[in-house]
């Protein structure tokens, strides 16, 4: 901080909007994100420090208030705090051996909602996104078009697509085209 000034996080998608009569596309608000790696013996201590239980099964997530943990692999999670909470500090206070990297400036997210959300996402994602195969709370690392994403289902018709900032305009453009097709 210099002379009381603090850098603010600006969305790479600021001013973007899109969708159709069946799909709404909204840039997610800035959030704190941490890529966390830890062994099974550290899960309990990290969960306690973070204030939510780290999920330990594929395609699962846990959320409490504005904080979420996404299972990405057997020893890997993506943590998101939508209020900008200190995830790095919480991990450090756990006393457990782990690796935590703040990826807040690397990632951004796009909210995809509405009755055509599944079809819109399936324009670029090969997964079965039906509720039976990808229920509310499901999360996975996958592809969308030509980019890697983390996809999270928040509600029956609402998804959060996490991607690197450098691919955000590409993802939004592909989603916007697919949303128009979903409404046709």
Topology:
Elements (H helix, E strand, L loop, with lengths): L17 E2 L4 E4 L4 E7 L4 H8 L10 E4 L2 E7 L2 E6 L5 H6 L5 E5 L4 E7 L3 H6 L16 E6 L2 E9 L2 E7 L3 H16 L1
Antiparallel strand pairs: 1-2, 2-8, 3-6, 3-7, 4-5, 5-6, 8-11, 9-10, 10-11
Enumerate how many helices there are, as a single number.
Answer: 4
Q: How many strands? A: 11
Helices and strands, in order, run as EEEHEEEHEEHEEEH
Radius of gyration over all CA atoms, rounded? 17 Å
User: Which whole number gives the mean pLDDT?
Assistant: 92
Separation of the first and last Cα atoms: 51 Å
Beta-strand percent range = 25-35%
- Spans of at least 5 consecutive residues with low confidence: none
Biggest β-sheet description: 6 strands, antiparallel
Amount of helix: 10-25%
Basic shape: globular
Structural category is: alpha+beta
Q: Widest sheet: strand order? A: 1-2-8-11-10-9
């Amino acid at each position: 901080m210099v002379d009381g000034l603090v850098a603010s996080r600006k969305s790479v998608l600021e001013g973007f909007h899109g969708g159709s009569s069946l799909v709404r596309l909204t840039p997610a608000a800035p959030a704190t994100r941490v890529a966390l790696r830890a062994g099974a013996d550290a899960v309990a201590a990290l969960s306690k420090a973070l204030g939510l239980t780290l999920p330990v099964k594929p395609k699962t997530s846990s959320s409490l208030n504005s904080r979420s943990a996404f299972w990405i692999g057997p020893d890997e999670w993506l943590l998101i705090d939508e209020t900008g909470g200190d995830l790095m500090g919480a991990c450090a206070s756990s006393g457990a051996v782990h690796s935590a990297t703040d990826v807040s400036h690397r990632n951004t997210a796009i909210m995809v909602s509405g009755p055509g959300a599944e079809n819109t996402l399936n324009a670029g994602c090969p997964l079965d996104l039906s509720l039976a195969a990808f229920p509310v709370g499901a999360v996975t690392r996958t592809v969308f078009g030509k980019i890697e994403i983390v996809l999270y289902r928040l509600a029956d018709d609402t998804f959060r697509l996490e991607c690197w900032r450098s691919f955000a305009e590409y993802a939004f453009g592909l989603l916007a085209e697919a949303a128009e097709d979903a409404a046709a």
